[in-house]
Amino acid sequence: MTTLTGHLTIALRLAEWGMPVMPLREGKGPMGNCRACRKNACSGRPNMKTPGSCACPAPCHAWAAATTDPDVLTSPAWAPAWRQAAAVAYHPGGAGVTVVDLDNADAVAWARQNLLATRTVATTRGEHWIYLGTMTSPNAVRPGVDIKSLMSYARWLGSGTGTMGKLPDVVRALAVKEPAAVRPASRPVTAAVPAGGGECPHRSPAYLERGIAMAEQRIGEAPDGIHRSVYRMFLAVLSAHGRCGCLTEAHIKRLFIAAQGRGESLRHCEDAWSNAAAALGM
């Protein structure tokens, strides 16, 4: 067993909590591959789907090397990595969580207005918002926002504050791309008002009004990729307000007007709304 360093001590504690961990070098990057694994000589380890699959005894292949096994963490093969480690990272997906990485003050402000409250951890430039549940890990889903969950790693910066909430649909929607082509409709499509029936999360009517107004603003400010922006905003509105029966035809009309103001056709608005509802199972 190696001598316990500060980083290794933290890693062992996290491993006891069920979090697959790994050392990070200076600059927040993973340890480089060893000679045996360099240039994929070990037969495609970057394609691994689960952590701990690398047969190499060294901490190779970033998140895929993360482990909860104390014997591996304290093994002689990992000792050089711990001696040069600048931080500890964990595999969020392996721990059953998703980290919304907010990289600046504007991203934090956006999260506070749009996302459900959850456990937060302060970072150098922003915050990590941590939710129960896993998903894919796309980067740059919006300015200053990355998602770290499956097949990814996040730096451990402390346990944070607040109660961890369930991963909301609005976060999952950030990773959804609008279908490249929409099937043509054989008859006019109408944007159906969701039937509702679910639990209403609104603290006041102003909560819904703020959500619609923000969606209108985001559509109007989208610098490019307007088709995708419209779809994302429709998806976000439906995920937040579509199951409780509060959305009305007037709300939908406002969203359509905002989209048409950016050059979208009525048909595309109707199809984008239908696709967003289908993606959420409505």
Question: Can you offer a commentary on this structure?
Answer:
The chain is an alpha+beta fold and 282 residues long. It has 9 helices and 8 strands. Strands 3, 4, 5, 6 and 8 form a 5-stranded mixed sheet that branches. It has a 3-stranded antiparallel sheet with strand order 1-2-7. The model is unreliable at 44-53 and 180-189 (pLDDT under 50).
Secondary-structure content class: alpha+beta
Total helical segments? 9
**β-strand amount:** 5-15%
Helix and strand string, N-terminal first? HEHHEEHEEEEEHHHHH
Radius of gyration: 22 Å
Key terms:
about 280 residues; alpha+beta; five-stranded mixed β-sheet; three-stranded antiparallel β-sheet; about 35% helix; about 10% strand
Write the layout of secondary structure elements.
Blueprint: H1 6-16, E1 21-24, H2 70-73, H3 79-84, E2 87-90, E3 97-102, H4 105-114, E4 119-122, E5 127-132, E6 145-148, E7 154-155, E8 165-166, H5 169-174, H6 205-221, H7 226-241, H8 249-260, H9 266-279
Parallel strand pairs: 5-8
Antiparallel strand pairs: 1-2, 2-7, 3-5, 3-6, 4-5
